[in-house]
């Protein structure tokens, strides 16, 4: 298998990992939008009303981006959106960590204030950085096997 083919398979794994994580995250939050808004407010970054709006919109956005990635549809656009989400999440987590605020990030539901010993910011940063790498890879190399993009728009031609 050529190096180019390996890249497609790496992209498939990156697409499915980022897509499934976003689907699970959105699914676990979409049934409790008030909890999602509370989790966003706990970061103490956005004004109250904007934090509420973000908390209500975020699960739906995660579901939409995750579905596009799993399907391999508009992969580059979905990867850029997923990458931007990961950057925002990383900024938020590092921000509360540096400011000494003890919260559960609410990444997979729940969220809000917790005891300092119940925080796990290092793991949250490592996880989201890995997911960001998946999104960056897909932004650069969006063509992957088993994608709707390939089915709808065809494989790239080689000269």
UniProtKB/TrEMBL annotation:
<keyword id="KW-0472">Membrane</keyword>
<protein>
    <submittedName>
        <fullName>DoxX family membrane protein</fullName>
    </submittedName>
</protein>
<feature type="transmembrane region" description="Helical">
    <location>
        <begin position="6"/>
        <end position="30"/>
    </location>
</feature>
<dbReference type="GO" id="GO:0030416">
    <property type="term" value="P:methylamine metabolic process"/>
</dbReference>
<feature type="transmembrane region" description="Helical">
    <location>
        <begin position="77"/>
        <end position="98"/>
    </location>
</feature>
<keyword id="KW-1133">Transmembrane helix</keyword>
<dbReference type="Pfam" id="PF07291">
    <property type="entry name" value="MauE"/>
</dbReference>
<feature type="domain" description="Methylamine utilisation protein MauE">
    <location>
        <begin position="9"/>
        <end position="140"/>
    </location>
</feature>
<dbReference type="InterPro" id="IPR009908">
    <property type="entry name" value="Methylamine_util_MauE"/>
</dbReference>
<feature type="transmembrane region" description="Helical">
    <location>
        <begin position="50"/>
        <end position="71"/>
    </location>
</feature>
<dbReference type="GO" id="GO:0016020">
    <property type="term" value="C:membrane"/>
</dbReference>
<keyword id="KW-0812">Transmembrane</keyword>
């Amino acid at each position: 298998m050529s190096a180019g083919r390996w890249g497609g398979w790496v992209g498939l794994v990156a697409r499915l990992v980022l897509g499934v994580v976003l689907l699970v995250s959105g699914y676990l939050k979409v049934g409790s939008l008030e909890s999602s808004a509370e989790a966003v407010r706990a970061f103490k970054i956005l004004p109250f009303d904007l934090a509420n709006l973000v908390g209500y919109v975020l699960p739906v956005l995660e579901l939409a981006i995750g579905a596009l990635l799993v399907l391999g549809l508009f992969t580059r656009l979905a990867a850029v959106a997923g990458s931007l989400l990961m950057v925002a999440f990383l900024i938020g987590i590092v921000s509360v960590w540096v400011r000494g605020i003890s919260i559960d990030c609410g990444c997979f539901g729940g969220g809000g204030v917790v005891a300092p010993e119940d925080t796990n910011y290092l793991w949250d940063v490592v996880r989201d950085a890995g997911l960001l790498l998946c999104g960056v890879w897909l932004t650069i190399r969006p063509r992957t096997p088993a994608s709707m993009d390939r089915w709808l728009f065809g494989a790239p031609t080689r000269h």
